[in-house]
Amino acid sequence: MTIDEAKNGEMIQLNVHGKVDANSSTQLQTEVLKAFQKCPSVILNFADVSYISSAGLRALLIGQKTASSKGGKFLIINANEAVVEVLRVTGLQKVLSVQ
User: Fold this and answer.
1) In terms of CB atoms within 10 Å, which of 31, 62, 72, 92 comes out highest?
2) Residue 77 β-bridge partners
3) What is the CATH number of the domain that holds 55?
4) Bridge-based pairing state of the strands 11-20 and 2-8
5) How many independent structural domains does the chain possess?
6) The domain containing residue 11 runs over which residues?
């Protein structure tokens, strides 16, 4: 998995590429937390994410909790059907902002 960072107005956008699994979820969590240190709102662009594991879901929940504590936003965009289905089945689509 690789992550590219881009400033998007008042938000930081992290473009995630590859699978978010047990091996890469720590990297995702670290990058999300680093982005929140720079800006109160973070967008995750999942256009190139084909798979997310339960470890990846944990990283997303930590991102959402961080956004809430900072009064910011945490948004997931361009997730494919497989990732959206995982979020739906786990009930996280109700907790996370997914577009």
Assistant:
1) 31
2) 45
3) 3.30.750.24
4) antiparallel
5) 1
6) 2-98
